[in-house]
Design a protein that fits this description.
alpha+beta, Phosphorylase Kinase, domain 1, Transferase(Phosphotransferase), domain 1, 2 domains, six-stranded antiparallel β-sheet, three-stranded antiparallel β-sheet, binds adenosine-5'-diphosphate, binds magnesium ion, protein serine/threonine kinase activity, Tyr_kinase_AS, transferase
Length: about 280
């Protein structure tokens, strides 16, 4: 798999105990969400220059992840909301390496989003970026995380008809199938890295760990990551995960052989957890 070379170099920082933040791979897939108790924050952190421009809408910090911050702001016109993903400098990292990594990761993520958008895979459009500053502005998805949508279906089964959740799971399978079809591996598939927009469409987000690959093995691992995340986030919907895989298999030619590979990947996963 052609990974972004910059992703591998800091997966294991030399001494995690002295670092005040951990690398992205080790985070649990739920970034700290700002709530009413932790009021946002334009002033809590140093902002990228673009957000200090007096003409821009005051930015609202939505989440603070291990490696990036996500702000809601506007782009070009006050009525065009955007999501601004900013990778702040890491003061503990060597300055030259830090700037190279921030540039490489921002560029890689924006490139993948652009490719997906061009080829009709549902992702936010890229509006603009400044790789030296480490930010990109993308289309604001005015929706809810798929994780929340699934849980609300599970909690209110009578209010939400059964076809609602089936449609949702089918769309997830199709979106991933279309992503894999164009040669991209997401790298961090979870129901938090997908949003449901007001038109009830599933939009894939967070391509910070994405890579280019046409290999069935890489595709199967991508699905396995989602399967594990899904089972632990939505244990009550365990059986319904089959609908995701069914839709995936029907979306592209190699779909069925990827599912066969997925069985191997699961087997390896089980062996590994038995050995410990
Ligand atoms: N385009 C977007 N529109 C609306 N909200 C978004 C958008 N992109 C990200 N978010 C929100 O910000 C959170 C963090 O963004 P994400 O790209 O997943 O970064 P991280 O790498 O920190 O997980 C998402 O889980 C989602 O709630
Ligand atoms: Mg995320």
């Amino acid at each position: 798999m052609t990974t972004n070379p910059s992703q591998t170099s800091t997966k294991r920082p030399p001494s995690p105990s002295i670092l005040n933040t951990s690398p992205k791979k080790s985070k649990p897939s739920s970034p700290q969400t700002m709530t009413a108790d932790t009021p946002p924050t334009a002033s809590s952190f140093p902002l990228p220059k673009i957000l200090t421009n007096p003409s821009s809408t005051p930015p609202l910090l939505i989440t603070q992840g291990a490696e990036s911050r996500l702000y809601k702001s506007t782009y070009l016109t006050p009525s065009t909301p955007c999501a601004l993903k900013y990778r702040p400098p890491k003061p503990w990292r060597h300055a030259t390496l830090d700037s190279r990594l921030r540039k490489a990761r921002t560029t890689a993520e924006a490139k993948v989003l652009e490719k997906c958008h061009r080829q009709g895979v549902p992702v936010p459009a890229v509006y603009g970026m400044d790789i030296t500053q480490g930010w990109m502005a993308i289309e604001w998805i005015d929706g809810i995380p798929v994780r929340v949508a699934i849980n609300s279906h599970l909690n209110n089964p009578q209010q939400n008809d059964e076809s609602g959740i089936k449609n949702l799971l089918k769309q997830i399978g199709e979106a991933i199938g279309n992503l894999h079809k164009i040669g991209i591996i997401h790298g961090d598939l979870t129901t938090s890295n997908m949003m449901l927009n007001p038109e009830n469409q599933v939009i894939l987000i967070d391509f910070g760990l994405a890579a280019q690959s046409q290999s069935d093995e890489d595709r199967a691992v991508d699905l396995y990551v989602l399967e594990r995340a899904f089972m632990s986030t939505h244990p009550r919907a365990e059986k319904e995960f089959g609908l995701v895989l069914e839709a995936y298999a029907q979306t592209f030619k190699k779909g069925k052989s990827v599912l066969t590979k997925l069985e191997d990947v699961r087997m390896r996963g089980r062996k590994k957890s038995m050995i410990g």
